[in-house]
């Protein structure tokens, strides 16, 4: 007996009807606005169309904005196998990070992740704590020598500090001497990545346009500095069990081969990049928020006085600095270092929150909006660390807050970053009054990490 034919058209039609809401026309000509003012643009779309917005850019390119915990959980966790990272992210980002952990997928990613995971294991944290503390202390010594009332850009200071920490902790090398060059090279390279990701018709990188040439020079600087770290370690092997030693010693189970210098270079660039820029940006905004909320700063200082009583923040004391930790958590909620995660692409047709998501859709999980979603956060724009009291956290949807991502690509450096930030906040606030310079322009630079565009100017005065 012939099988009954299932009529395909009604299903397709039903699915088409069920596409997420969004503008009907192509938005190619609005790309410059999306590129230069992404927060304002996407905020408008979110308010107009809701928590899942479809943005048709041009034929064959559709973005989806996911601004609800349910969508984030679906994409990152429960149905993560249906999503990968798209070429429009992997290719431009790969120009800087090659095939590092952040820009690789599938089996290759899994192999690298397994190789690198042990270096971030809990038991490594004690060693890392000592390195972090010594880097912070050397910054404090520098500040102590400054004349009272001198103005500094605390955002730039945090970048310098986190760069020194990540290089010392992971590679046992202090690259402070090169830090300005390195920081600048990363910035130029990432601005270029941002430009390429948002300019579908950009000319290939080999064409010598001024932008391309500037990028190539920045990438050469990164490669040179990192290659020097690797080569100097190959020539002078040490018995420190830092990440570089682990990567150098790692062998493929089948072939017995080690990682090529090229692959090592990609991983080192990835870790320096991912490991300093995010933390520095988060800390810069934390100082800004503390500066604009003296009551919260005072409460944090009270905790530091009670728990540390003038001593250094030792590894054992860190878990007691709960208010300091809540300050950082809340700062990451209001000012996450990224508007969203790396974009994803639907590898197959899918359905999210009742809407049909066709294969090939580019999905942007916007944690900036999710972590101020009014359904989950009361007075979302208010800076209130006590939102992170355990009883409140337990009542909240898990995916209302995920500053370190979720699922298999969750940040490998999460414990590293949390410990580092707590030590930095505690060690500095314990010894210095940080005051914002009044009437300075404060603005977010939305290209890549959400850095303060003009820095954050403060005075640092010793506490007596
Ligand atoms: C406050 C600081 C930090 C924040 C907010 C942060 C946030 C994130 C997020 C959201 C992801 C997931 C991205 C995605 O799924 O698209 C991620 C991945 C990653 N992070 Fe972090 N991160 C921080 C610090 C660090 C540090 C200190 C390191 C290394 C020392 C690091 C290394 C990485 C790497 C290598 C990945 C890619 C992981 C993978 O795909 O397997 N991050 N981070």
Characterise the protein shown here.
The structure is a single chain. The chain is an alpha+beta fold and 464 residues long. It has a single domain (13-462), classed as Cytochrome p450. 51% of the residues lie in helices and 10% in strands. A five-stranded mixed β-sheet has the order 1-2-8-5-3, with helices on both faces. A hairpin with a 2-residue loop joins strand 1 (52-58) and strand 2. The longest helix is centred in the middle third of the chain and has 32 residues, at 261-292. It is globular. The termini are far apart. Mean pLDDT is 90; it is low at 1-12. Bound molecules: protoporphyrin IX containing FE (HEM). Protoporphyrin IX containing FE binds at residues 101-102, 113, 166, 270-271, 274-275, 278-279, 282, 337, 341-342, 403-405, 409, 411-413, 416-417.
Compile the SSE list and pairings.
Layout: H1 8-17, H2 31-36, H3 38-49, E1 52-58, E2 61-66, H4 69-78, E3 83-84, H5 87-97, H6 106-116, H7 125-144, E4 151-153, H8 154-171, H9 179-197, H10 210-235, H11 243-249, H12 261-292, H13 294-308, H14 322-334, E5 344-346, E6 350-352, E7 355-357, E8 362-365, H15 367-370, H16 390-395, H17 414-431, E9 432-436, E10 444-445, E11 451-452, E12 457-462
Parallel strand pairs: 2-8
Antiparallel strand pairs: 1-2, 3-5, 4-12, 5-8, 6-7, 9-12, 10-11
Bound molecules: protoporphyrin IX containing FE.
Strand ordering within the main sheet = 1-2-8-5-3
Q: Write out the CATH superfamily name.
A: Cytochrome P450
* Major sheet size, sense and barrel closure: 5 strands, mixed
Q: What is the N-to-C succession of helices and strands?
A: HHHEEHEHHHEHHHHHHHEEEEHHHEEEE
Secondary-structure-based class equals alpha+beta
Strand content: 5-15%
Can you tell me the residue ranges where pLDDT is under 50 for at least 5 consecutive residues? Answer: 1-12
What quaternary form is this? single chain
**Cα radius of gyration in angstroms:** 23 Å
Q: Distance N terminus to C terminus?
A: 92 Å
Bound molecules: protoporphyrin IX containing FE
Tell me the number of structural domains: 1
**Averaging pLDDT over every residue, what do you get?**
90
Architecture per CATH nomenclature, i.e. the level-2 architecture: Orthogonal Bundle
Q: In the CATH scheme, what's the topology name?
A: Cytochrome p450
Using DSSP, what is the number of strands? 12
Shape: globular
The share of residues in helices is 40-55%
CATH class: Mainly Alpha
Count helical runs: 17
